[in-house]
C-alpha cells in the first residue's frame, strides 16, 4: 500500500505517518511545505525507515503535486495539510484561503489527473481521504451532537475555509467520480502538539510559571480526541469507508475549557510540585471573537459501520500528554524559544504597536 500524506510534518499528520510507517507498514510519502507548524523533529521516529520519504512542497504548487503523483504513484491520498489555528485565521485569513481552499483544489486536480489514467482495477481501489473538522458545523447549544447530516454553519475564517474545501472534495467525487471520503473530527490533543494550541500552551506556560490564559469564562465545551486514536480512525476510514460518505470522529469526551486547564494544573501539582498550586496562574482574558460555545461529535456511524472505538478517555489521555511534554523538552523548547513563545493571537483589539 502506497500512501501520500499531505501535512505529515504537522501535529495529526505526524501521528498518522508514524502509525502508517511503523504499525501498518505502508510505503509513505509525506508532502509538507514546512510552515511554522510543520516540524521534521515530529518525524524523527521514522526518519531512517526505508518505507518513508519526505518531500518539501506546497500543495498549491500544481507542477510539484503532479510530479509527486507521477513519481510516487500512490494507491491512496490522506490530505491533512492546512492552516489550522483559528486565532491566526482571525488576523490573517489569506493563508487559510490559499492553502485550505486553493491548495485542496490543486491537490484534487492533481489526484484526478493521475487517477483518470490508472488501469481500472487500481482506479476502483484508489481513495482520497479529505481530513476536516467538526468546526464546519458551527456551534451547539447545551444539548445535541454533530451528525454527518448536520448542516454546515462555520463561524471563523478557519472553519469557513475548511467547509469550502469539504464542498470541493464532495464535488470532485460527484462530478468526476474521484473516490473521495471525508472525515470530520473534534479537537485533538496529545504529543507533538504545537504550543499555540490550548493544551500544550497551558502545560508549557504552567511549567514556566507564566499566566494560563482562559478565553471569556472558560465555559466553551470541546469534545477531546487523543491524536493516536484519530490516526487509527483515519486509516480505518481510508481503508474501509464508503466512497462519497462522511464520517465524524470524536472521543465522546466533552469538557469545558476551564476544566481542561484545571485538570492539567492538578496533574502538574502531582508531577512537578513547586510549592504553590498551578491553578493560581489562571487568568481570564477577553474572549475570542466569534468563539463557538460547544462542539460535540456523534461518532455512531464510525463506531457501528467500521467498529472504531477511542482507546483513550480524557483522563488517561491528558495524563499521557502532560507526561510526554515533561519528558520531551528537546521537541518543544526550540519552538517556545523561537517561532512561538506563548503570546496572545487572534485579538481584534489594536495596540500601540499596530
Ligand atoms: N488539530 C485539531 O484538533 C484538528 C481537529 C479537526 C481537524 N483538523 C484538521 O486536521 C488536519 C491537520 O491538523 P493539525 O492540527 O495536524 O495541523 P497542523 O497545523 O499541526 O499541521 C498542518 C501541516 O500542514 C503543513 N502545511 C500547511 N500549509 C501547507 C501547504 N500549503 N502545503 C503543504 N503543507 C502545508 C504544515 O507545514 C503542517 O505540517 C487539518 O486539515 C485540520 O484542519 C485538526
Distance between the termini: 51 Å
> Could you tell me the number of beta strands?
13
Radius of gyration: 20 Å
- Spans where pLDDT lies below 50 across 5 or more residues: 350-354
Helical content class: 40-55%
Mind telling me which CATH architecture of one domain this is?
3-Layer(aba) Sandwich
CATH superfamily of one domain: NAD(P)-binding Rossmann-like Domain
CATH topology of one domain: Rossmann fold
- Provide the succession of SSEs: EHEEHEHHHEHEEHEEEHEEHEHHH
Catalytic activity: dTDP-alpha-D-glucose = dTDP-4-dehydro-6-deoxy-alpha-D-glucose + H2O
Enzyme class: lyase
Family: Belongs to the NAD(P)-dependent epimerase/dehydratase family. dTDP-glucose dehydratase subfamily.
Pfam families: GDP_Man_Dehyd
Which labels suit this protein?
globular; NAD(P)-bd_dom; two-stranded parallel sheet; 13 strands; disordered C terminus; lyase; alpha/beta; dTDP-glucose 4,6-dehydratase activity; binds nicotinamide-adenine-dinucleotide; seven-stranded parallel sheet; 354 residues; 42% helix; Rossmann fold
Structure description:
- With 354 residues, this protein is α/β, with parallel strands linked by helices.
- The chain has a domain at 2-187 and 224-253 and 296-313: Rossmann fold.
- The chain contains twelve helices and 13 strands.
- The strands form four sheets. It has a seven-stranded parallel sheet with strand order 3-2-1-4-5-6-11, sandwiched between helices. It has a two-stranded parallel ribbon with strand order 7-10. A two-stranded parallel sheet has the order 8-13.
- Helix 2 (62-72) crosses helix 4 (93-116).
- The termini are far apart.
- Mean pLDDT is 94; it is low at 350-354.
- Bound molecules: nicotinamide-adenine-dinucleotide.
- The site of nicotinamide-adenine-dinucleotide has 30 residues, from helix 1, helix 4 and strand 5.
